[in-house]
Amino acid sequence: MLRTDQLTWTEYVEKLKEEPIVFLPVGAHEQHGPHLPMGTDAILATKMAEAVAAGLQGLVLPTISYGYKSQARSGGGQTFVGTTSLDGQTLIATTQDIVRELARHGVRRLVVLDGHFENQWFLTEGIELAQRELQASGGAMDIVRTEYWDFCPEAVLDTVFEGEFPGYDLEHAALIETSMMLYWQPELVRVDSIPQNDQASFATFDTYPQDGRGGPASGVLAPAKGASGAKGQLIIESTITAITQALGAHFQANS
Ligand SMILES: [Zn+2]
User: Fold this and answer.
1) Active-site residue list
2) Is the per-residue pLDDT at 138 higher than 90?
3) What's the pLDDT band for 163 if we cut at 50, 70, 90?
């Protein structure tokens, strides 16, 4: 695995001759409770992209470290100090700009690997607009957009949650992310500050302007207290295997 920000442009040109799969990790700068750093989504997306790229001889671009606005029911919302978010149009334009530049370089295969729930439709729109441009000029790129958590095998979730998985939207700064960080970046986890709260319960609608009511004050939407590095390892290794297999098969079929 190579990071483009550590290559010279001449090395990059050489590497592109192998038609590598290029990875764009996308995260957020968002509160993740009193125990995880605000860069958690960006850190996890970057590490996941690097691990998968290593198995596929890929290249990893610099991470988009800001994301679309936190929503109350999936990230605690925009009322937390520290959460620093982009307008949808900014994320769309950023994604479109990067795809356009990669096409100019001759990149043919791209994976946009998302680590922040709220990003997905804005990444999708950036990709769609870029593809429309590329198709109009006679060349499309083979682009995959994915959220890494979709690949965690159900059997692993059953083991880790003892059959009580709350769903990914509430898994904000909770057991999965805390366990992954305990495995990958334990020095960044404030173990003594892991909150003891139970699962948040929300109305089945969103309200605007966001007022922060209804969500836990800690910013953690589901229990994190059972998190461990061992669970993180299980989640991470099984997810890396599954993504690597799926992407390998996709790009082989399309080559
Ligand atoms: Zn997160």
Assistant:
1) 30, 32, 41, 116, 118, 172, 177
2) no
3) confident
Give the tokens for residue 163. 């059959």
Q: CB–CB of 27/120 below 8 Å?
A: no
Nearest-angstrom CA–CA distance, 47 and 43? 6
Distance, in Å, from the CA atom of 117 to the CA atom of 9, rounded to the nearest integer, reads 33
Domain count, the chain: 1
d(CA 27, CA 48): 11
Nearest to 64 by CA among 16, 26, 109: 26
Measured in angstroms, how far is the CA atom of residue 32 from the centroid of ligand 1? 6
Q: How far is the CA of 237 from the centre of ligand 1 (A)?
A: 18
Ligand 1 centroid distance, CA of 116 (Å) = 6
Distance of CA 140 to the CA centre of its chain: 24
Which stretch of 44-58, 64-78, 168-182, 199-213 has the lowest confidence by average pLDDT? 199-213
Give the pLDDT score at 173: 92
Using a CB cutoff of 5 Å, list residues around ligand 1, an ion: 40-41
In 94-141, the DSSP E strands lie at 109-114
- Residues spanned by the domain of 19: 2-253
99 in Cβ contact with 105 (< 8 Å): no
CATH number of domain containing 69: 3.40.50.10310
Paired tokens of 9: 């442009």
Nearest one of 222, 223, 224, 207 to 77, comparing CA atoms: 207
CA of 189 to the centre of ligand 1 (A): 13
